[in-house]
Amino acid sequence: CAELGAACIYTTSPDAFEPADWARFDALSRRTALRRFGGDSYCYGLLASGHVDLVVEAGLQPYDYLALVPVIEGAGGVITDWQGRPLGVDSDGRVVAAATASLHAAALAGLGA
Hints:
Layout: E1 8-11, H1 19-29, E2 34-37, H2 42-48, E3 54-57, H3 62-65, H4 68-74, E4 78-80, E5 95-98, H5 101-110
Helix pairs in contact: 2-4
């Protein structure tokens, strides 16, 4: 999709967020057309195959997200931390993956990055 208001956003579980991160995610996700929970890494497969628009998570470990970077980028998407920085072993576990660069920028803005 081309804009945040038409997007479908996924996250694994509200339980994975610290309260401040949940407030940021909640504010962002309420601006989308549809939000869904569950799926873990399956969410990223849905994004890479064009079935969802955004995946936003917190509380992840490097083994949760590092292998996803080439998959999302290879599908034409963007995946970074919540500040828009590339993901690495020292990242803080907050991930934003988007189908397009413009949607990624809108998600970062919605998270207050």
